[in-house]
Amino acid sequence: MNAASEMSAQQQRYRDVRKVTLVGSVLDFMLGVAKIVVGWFANSQALIADGIHSLSDLLTDFMVLYAAKHSHRAADETHPYGHGRIETLATVSLGVVLVIVAIGIATSSIQRLNDPGVLLDFSILALLVALVSVVSKEWIYHYTMAAARRLRSDMLMANAWHSRSDAFSSIVVLIGIAGVMLGYPYLDAIAAVVVAAMIAKIGFGLVRSSTRELIDTALDPDKVNAIREHIYTVSGVRSIHTLRTRKSAGDAFVDVHIQVDPRLSVSEGHQIGDAVRRCLMEHVDEVTDVTVHIDPENDETGSPCNELPAREKVIDELKQRWFQLPAATIETVTLHYLSGEIDVELDLPIEILQDINEAKHLVLELKKAVSSLIYIREVQVRFRA
After folding, report:
1. Is residue 23 one of the residues assigned to a domain?
2. Residue 302 located in a structural domain
């Protein structure tokens, strides 16, 4: 995916998040106003409180809209990996809000259990509004959750659960009204404690998963194994090591070292790396960026070539010992740093030979001249026309 198409996808994702959140905001506003008005006329304190709860959902809706707008901004110099963590922070905040909502529901229920004088008023109109609220908020939950799964957005998922918490609180109101009608005024308090525990569990789960994302926890093992299997399908990959993954909002980043034939050219190794990158981005939905390191050997636990001299020093040593060769010829030598030693590949023009029998003698001389260099394991000489 090129930069233009990636930017277009991000903009489309933002538009989708905004649309879903705005639909929920409109519904929250209409339900909140309806509950408060009907609760006032029906003298239902529970319905009025539930209406205030619905209006409070607008605050989290605005939080989602703000986070969505800024988290989808393009990467820049100070944020080279983009701004997706803003969405993660918003998810943590929404999880905390859910926990607070759960505490509020539980506290209110315990107060009613401890104060027999606090009862829920009811009327047919209040009952109908509560029913409409349950159906509406459950619908917006499924609508938002479907978008959250499609867009891989934990933030939308958290907001969906916040909407469902409103549906749960309306169910508590319904149970309370039914309890009053049936002569069990404390029935709603018991139901509320159960609902509060469910909401708190969801909130803690969202906070936990998003916090893990903030500290760059790896993707699920199943997903990492799938990534590994896809890499091995690329021709030229001999092995994999140091496979690292992390998540940012709905995106996943992969950093992997792959081992290829050490005798390949740099360009061919690069081509294999590009093939790995394309493979992962095409077959793993979450993956939006892949960094591939090309290795000639496994250096996960340490590189055995760290102590070897750099190319400049090796070339100087070869020039001193191969003084009979043109300097320009030695400059084009190929060095292979492998297993703590250096293999040298030397291409010589065939014109320097007077006859073909001289080739074997020259190769033996060149190898003997560098035998004192302990870091050189092998010298290969090719004569080219």
Report:
1. yes
2. no
